[in-house]
Design brief:
By secondary structure, this protein is α+β, with helices and mostly antiparallel strands. Helix content is 32%, strand content 31%. Strands 1-2 form a two-stranded parallel ribbon. It has a two-stranded antiparallel sheet with strand order 3-4. Strand 3 and strand 4 form a beta hairpin.
Amino acid sequence: MPYISLRVAGRLSRRQKVAIAREFAETLEKVAGKPKDSTYLVFDEVERENWAKGENLLG
């Protein structure tokens, strides 16, 4: 059972999450032979003000 943890800065729409989940599941099926319905994906949306690159906050 593949498990993917995806952390992004900011919010994603439901539509974006569905598309991302579909792409990950299809890729794992195609490349690794894992059935789509066995893939788990967790979205971790971090507010941009809580994310920094180097010394600079993104938000």
